[in-house]
């Protein structure tokens, strides 16, 4: 474990979350998000992956365009409809679909993944989010944070999450999840820097590590598109 030392803060979790949302999304832009951004993922022993995410929440549109290792594929999700292209073609073999994991179920998973992680901490107000009202004060890698614990209704998710906020600015700087906390599984993610995307302060870089042994998994770097 990289986190040590718990104590409790007098503030309740809803208050801390609201202040964190005010820091990251001061003008409530997330609810009406309509823009695009780019994420470059660097992982050991794998080619760099560039993902361009375009989302229009009001019109229920989401497009994910991925380039990696000389190939490109796109998911286009619009009001429940789904279309997929591989290297510009709407038709591709079953072997290629398996190789690149191309399916509408996968597209929905990736949509949920990007809108969740880049929508934090605003997404912690979503229905089905079970926010523990206790606020812990905890040191993580030598810095003291206000920590919120979140679980989810079983129809939403089964992981346990912890979110670490700077006690002065309420900026989100770390988050961590467990599938089974008693096994110390799951991962922690270190956030560094901020990028202004459509008026929202999103983490510039996210570095992923295993909880159990601090093994480095990769880094996502956010760019304006």
TrEMBL record:
Pfam families per record: DUF6503
InterPro entries referenced in this protein's UniProt entry, alphabetically: DUF6503
Domain of life: Bacteria
Full protein name: Outer membrane lipoprotein-sorting protein
Taxonomy of the source species: Bacteria, Pseudomonadati, Bacteroidota, Flavobacteriia, Flavobacteriales
């Amino acid at each position: 474990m990289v986190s040590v030392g718990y104590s409790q803060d007098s503030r309740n979790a809803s208050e801390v979350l609201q202040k964190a949302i005010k820091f990251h999304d001061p003008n409530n832009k997330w609810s009406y998000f309509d823009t695009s951004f780019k994420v470059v993922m660097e992982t050991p022993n794998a080619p760099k992956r560039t993902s361009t995410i375009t989302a229009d929440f009001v019109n229920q549109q989401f497009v994910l365009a991925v380039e990696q290792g000389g190939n490109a594929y796109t998911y286009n999700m619009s009001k429940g409809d789904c279309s997929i292209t591989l290297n510009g073609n709407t038709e591709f073999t079953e072997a290629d679909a398996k190789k690149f994991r191309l399916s509408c179920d996968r597209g929905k998973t990736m949509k949920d993944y990007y809108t969740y992680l880049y929508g934090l901490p605003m997404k912690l107000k979503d229905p089905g989010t079970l926010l523990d009202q206790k606020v812990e004060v905890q040191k993580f890698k030598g810095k003291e944070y206000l920590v919120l614990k979140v679980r989810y209704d079983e129809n939403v998710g089964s992981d346990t999450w912890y979110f670490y906020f700077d006690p002065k600015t309420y900026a989100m700087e770390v988050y961590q999840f467990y599938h089974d906390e008693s096994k110390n599984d799951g991962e922690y993610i270190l956030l560094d820097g901020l990028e202004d995307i459509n008026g929202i302060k999103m983490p510039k870089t996210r570095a992923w590590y295993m909880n159990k042994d601090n093994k480095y998994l990769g880094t996502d770097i956010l760019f304006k598109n």
